[in-house]
Structure formats: structure tokens, C-alpha cells
TrEMBL record:
InterPro entries: DUF1731, Epimerase_deHydtase, NAD(P)-bd_dom_sf, Polyketide_cyclase/dehydratase, START-like_dom_sf
One Pfam family from the record: Polyketide_cyc2
Coiled coil, from the record: none
Domain DUF1731 span(s) in chain numbering: 417-465
Designated name of the protein: DUF1731 domain-containing protein
Domain NAD-dependent epimerase/dehydratase: 163-288
Top-level taxon of origin: Bacteria
Length: 468
């Protein structure tokens, strides 16, 4: 039995700069917060022994007292390291590799556990090491870049500062890390300072202040506005008001500030959601007129987009985003936990439509909206200003979604949940059944017309990537 997780990130740095950090195992905790300390007996060489301790308090204490050390099982200087640690009946491999590609370097981390207890140790030992991979990479970039100040290829310091409001959430973290690793200057607007490898600027998300003066003094500026708490909460009147406020107020604050700056924002990416289309079983492209009177979440998104009117930007895109799928996405927890218990059948009628996009494609869409190459080695894609549906070209019905969820967790059968049962369960789980029971069949007309090629156009491919 095996458990494994693999993830990769392209860096706008030469392999040597990254190797200088990876090869010094004492610096492992500096870029992976799941590691409290690490050491190596002697110099880095095959067969050398070392130890590491997890930062989790209880697991770390047990690990220090009971876990054996690791050995450097494989070493290709400048290219790869494999650490092998024995486990009961098997072992854990931690592998890092570097591949020079497209003028930079692809860093790949793979954690594998084998043996009869691989799944159990995977959850306690392996999963913390790979969680938050994007932020790990941003920290790794920060450590590696100063050692080679001329390594970045696009002169990022002289380019625009990209400011991300709502940048400490899951999407903001992924985007900030992607941009940092590409060598761009990034800052986060945040209500309170958090542990982050990215520079943070304090604001209250409502009024003007020092943050506005600082951004207005910049010669060149991009904005990505992702501010807003999760929509996944009960649809009470109080929650609907709160959901709207956490989106409308920051958007208005940014728009008001932009009008006072000496020059317009170069590119503004305004997050929105396909929920604006309401319960829409018919395909809804960007030219479709959203219902003006749809209640609940559709009304929240309408107010959100209306707050963006009047922004001072040379180029602006309103990104109506579907459900973003990634391994750590909250929706996967919502769907996989009952599926593992045998309750992974169709929700409601099973015929409602589900609009989604893989995190890798969402990041490429945002890069296009910022006028950047979609990925290393690609050219920028010219997107017109206005509304862009950030969704896969192949939305699926709920019964197909749940079939993929069951395959993902390895439980072939699942009990369906009729709408009344789902509503009752949602009340217990403190979620909004509207998210699962309403159809949202958005299609990416603008992206398709612009020639955007999805890496994960089909849901099956997206689940395969997440399972890897």
C-alpha cells in the first residue's frame, strides 16, 4: 500500500539558486513551516544520516521521541535529493528535484509512504509536509532570490506592483505565490498581519488611509480584488448581508481610492462569481443578461459587481468564477467526507449543473487578465475588457460530479440525498444547500474566442490531477 503527493512550481530563477537552499537541510524549516527543525550529520552525500521534527506540537513530540532518522537515499548534486525515513513495515521518501525549463527552473516535491500503515502515516506525517505547497514555494523563492540578484529574467522590480486584496485566502495565496515565483513584485491588502512570505499592507477594507496613499504613490500598479468571505455558509438574511458587505465595502474602498490616484490602475482584475446567473439550467455566456430579481447569492454578486462601477483603470476584467477545484479546496472536504461514509450519491435531483475550473487554469486566466504569459514559455493572451467567465468549457451535472467524487475516494456506491434531506444536513453542517441544489451552467465564451487552451477542460482530468 502506498500514499503519495506530488506538486510542481516553475521559478524564474536558475537551478543553482534554488539548489543552494534545498541542499542546506538546516534551512528546510525556513521554507516549509510544517518542519520545526532539521539537521544532517556531516556534509550532504548519499548515505548521510539526519533528523527532522514536525512543527505540530503533539506529532512533533512523538516524532522526536520515537521516529528514526532519515538517510540521504539518492543525491544528484544540483538536480535532486531523496530522503528516506523508515516507518513500521515500510518507509517515507521525501524527494525534491530541479529541472531547468523555459528560462527558469521547475521545482517538484514528491512525498511517498509505503507499507501497511501508509495511509495512516500519510495523514499524520506526509500530508503536513505537502500542505500549502504554493506558499512553501513563495518562501523558497524569497530565500533563493537574494543569493542571485540578477537571476530574475523579466526585471520585476521595475514592473508594476500587483496588489491583491483578499490575498490571504486560498485563491489569493495561490495567486500571490505564483506571481512571486515568476519574479513579480506583489503585496497583499490585509486587515491584520499574518504569517506570509509576501509583503502585506494594512487596511480596514472600508475607508481610506495610509494604504491608499502608499498605492497612489506607485508609478505603476495592478490590482486583483478577491476580497470577500466564503459563500459556503447558511443563507440566512444576516449571512446574506454579511456576504454582500465583505465584498461590496472593499470594492468601493478600492474604487474610491483609485479615483484619487495620479494615474489609473494599469490592469484591474475584479473577482465575481457565476452565481450571478441564478438558477440557470441553460448555458450562460458573458452576453447573457443575469436575472435582475434573483434573491440570495445572486443578489450578493449583483451588488458586488455594481460596486466596481467607476473604477479608474486602463484595463479591467470582471472575472465571474466557477467553483475552483484544488486538492485542499473546502468543497472537496464537503463532498468527500460523506462520500467516504457511503453517502456520495447524487444530491437533489442530480440534474443540476455545476460550473467549475481547475486552480491551474484559474491562475492562467488571471495571468492573462494581467497581461502576462499564461505560463512559462507561452505568450500573453489578449483578453478584452469586460466580463469573463472563468469556468471550464464543460460544466457537468451533479450526478456526474458525485460519480467522480466516489471514484476519487475509492467508494464505488453512494446513497443519494434528496433535497429535503440535503437541506436538513446543511443546517447541521452550517452550509448553504442552495450551492448544491441550484443549476449554474456558465460557459467561457470570451476565453474560447480568445483561443485560451484549458489544461483541465474535463472534470475527469481535474480529479486525476488532484488524486496525484
Amino acid at each position: 500500500m502506498t500514499w503519495h503527493r506530488t506538486a510542481s512550481q516553475w521559478f524564474n530563477l536558475p537551478a543553482g539558486a534554488l539548489w543552494g537552499v534545498l541542499a542546506d537541510l538546516r534551512r528546510w524549516p525556513d521554507w516549509n513551516p510544517a518542519v520545526a527543525e532539521a539537521s544532517l550529520d556531516g556534509s550532504l552525500a548519499e548515505g548521510a544520516m539526519g533528523r527532522y521534527a514536525p512543527s505540530q506540537r503533539v506529532v512533533g513530540l512523538l516524532h522526536r521521541r520515537t521516529a528514526p532518522g532519515f538517510a540521504v537515499a539518492q543525491l544528484d548534486p544540483g538536480r535532486s535529493i531523496v530522503l528516506r525515513q523508515p516507518q513500521p513495515g515500510g518507509g517515507q521518501d521525501i524527494a525534491w528535484s530541479l529541472e531547468e525549463r523555459d528560462g527558469g527552473t521547475v521545482f517538484t516535491q514528491r512525498v511517498t509512504l509505503d507499507g501497511p500503515l501508509a495511509q495512516q502515516f500519510g495523514l499524520t506525517a506526509g500530508e503536513p509536509l505537502v500542505r500549502g505547497f504554493a506558499a512553501q514555494c513563495a518562501r523558497l523563492y524569497r530565500l533563493a532570490a537574494p543569493a542571485s540578484p540578477t537571476a530574475t529574467l523579466d526585471g520585476a522590480p521595475s514592473g508594476p506592483l500587483t496588489v491583491i486584496a483578499g490575498g490571504t485566502g486560498s485563491l489569493g495565496t495561490a495567486l500571490a505565490s505564483e506571481l512571486v515565483c515568476s519574479g513579480h513584485e506583489v503585496a497583499l491588502l490585509t486587515r491584520s498581519f499574518k504569517k506570509s512570505p509576501v509583503r502585506q499592507i494594512l487596511w480596514d477594507g472600508r475607508g481610506q488611509g495610509e494604504w491608499s496613499d502608499e498605492l497612489g504613490a506607485r508609478g505603476r500598479l495592478n490590482i486583483v480584488n478577491l476580497a470577500g468571505v466564503s459563500l459556503d455558509r447558511p443563507g440566512t438574511p444576516e449571512n446574506i448581508t454579511m456576504l454582500a458587505a465583505t465584498r461590496v465595502e472593499p470594492t468601493r474602498a478600492l474604487v474610491t481610492a483609485s479615483r484619487s490616484w495620479n494615474q489609473p490602475v494599469e490592469r484591474w482584475v475584479q473577482q465575481s462569481a457565476v452565481g450571478i446567473y441564478g438558477d440557470s439550467p441553460e448555458p450562460m455566456g458573458e452576453t447573457a443578461v443575469p436575472p435582475a430579481d434573483a434573491p440570495g447569492l445572486a443578489g450578493v454578486v449583483r451588488d458586488w459587481e455594481a460596486a466596481f462601477d467607476g473604477a479608474a483603470a486602463a484595463h479591467s476584467i470582471v472575472l465571474r468564477t466557477g467553483v475552483v477545484l484544488e486538492r485542499d479546496a473546502a468543497i472537496l472536504v464537503r463532498l468527500t467526507v460523506p462520500a467516504r461514509l457511503g453517502a456520495g450519491g447524487a444530491l437533489g435531483t442530480g440534474g443540476q449543473w455545476f460550473s467549475w475550473i481547475h486552480i491551474a487554469d484559474w491562475l492562467r486566466v488571471v495571468r492573462a487578465a494581467l497581461g502576462l504569459p499564461l505560463s512559462a514559455g507561452e505568450r500573453p493572451l489578449d483578453l478584452p475588457d469586460g466580463v469573463v467567465n472563468a469556468t471550464s468549457p464543460h460544466p457537468v451535472q451533479n450526478r456526474e460530479l458525485m460519480a467522480h467524487v466516489r471514484e476519487y475516494v475509492g467508494v464505488p456506491l453512494g446513497i443519494p440525498a434528496p433535497a429535503p434531506l440535503l437541506r436538513a444536513a446543511a443546517a447541521v453542517l452550517r452550509t448553504n444547500p442552495q450551492l448544491a441544489l441550484e443549476s449554474v451552467r456558465a460557459v467561457p465564451g470570451v476565453l474560447t474566442a480568445a483561443g485560451f487552451e484549458f489544461h483541465y477542460p474535463q472534470l475527469a482530468a481535474a480529479f486525476r490531477e488532484m488524486a496525484a
